Amino acid sequence: MTQNELKEAVGRAAIAYVPENCIVGVGTGSTANYFIDALAEIKGQIQGAVSSSEASVARLKSHGIPVFDLNTINELPVYVDGADEINHQLQMLKGGGAALTREKIIAAVAEQFICICDESKLVDVLGKFPLPVEVIPMARSHVAREIVKLGGHPAYREGVITDNGNIIIDVHGLSISQATELETKLNQIVGVVTNGLFAHRRADVLLLGTANGVKTIK
Ligand SMILES: O=C[C@H](O)[C@H](O)[C@H](O)COP(=O)(O)O
Question: Which homologous superfamily is 131-195 in?
């Protein structure tokens, strides 16, 4: 199977976690896009969605799926999203598509986080994929200097402005054994909006696309 076929398989498998008549949390990226396309097939059975990016909002709307403002809803049973890396404790590294902050907000509201990935994303130690950090533009140099003090190599992601009007610094050279501690330390740097470690709020279920089918890891 190709990587895209594995992504499509997990996107479809996640539909089983969507309760009838609910509002569903929808993530961002190529894997989440397959979930959105599968969701379109059952759109008559849900009220609609909340979404972590303008790109996903546009895709949901193109399928005729109603999109709600997160502030108008009281409960969110499930959030479905991809990841750039996930470890065996179901801690994730996210934000390759620059949507990390809205993803973290929706994940905080959701009762269950269902992570959908092809098997290339499962790692023993997070950090080979550069860790994205969303930063207020005027704090760029300050945040970069503080990241160096933590042992990382910061790189400004040129030409990218997030949906929130901020910039992204990608942190290279990390081998993240203490993910919750690093998530907290990075968030304490003044000027950081959030970082792409999802260690405090991990996934509840991983649907992993493999050559032998979709594996469920809890
Ligand atoms: O900002 C983007 C998100 O964190 C994505 O969930 C992540 O980058 C994975 O995307 P993809 O499914 O395209 O690999």
Answer: ACT domain (3.30.70.260)
Reported as a single tens digit per residue, the pLDDT across 35-74 is 999 999 999 999 999 999 999 999 999 999 999 999 999 9
How much distance in Å is there from the Cα of 62 to the middle of ligand 1? 20
Nearest CA, atom 2, ligand 1: 97
Under DSSP, is residue 13 helix (H, G, I), strand (E, B) or coil?
A: helix
Which ranges in the chain belong to alpha helices (H)?
Answer: 3-13, 30-40, 54-62, 100-109, 140-149, 179-187
**Per the annotation, does 48 bind a ligand?**
no
Q: Is the pTM of this model over 0.80?
A: yes
Whether ligand 1 lies within 6 angstroms of the CB of 130 is answered as no
Distance CA 21, CA 193 (A): 33
**CATH class assigned to 3-124+200-217:** alpha beta
Residue 118 marked in a binding site:
no
Q: List every span in the chain annotated with CATH 3.40.50.1360.
A: 3-124+200-217
User: Would you say the CB of residue 147 lies under 6 angstroms from ligand 1?
Assistant: no
Please identify which residue in the block is written with the tokens 């998530």: 183
Tell me how far the alpha carbon of residue 166 lies from the centroid of ligand 1, in angstroms. 18
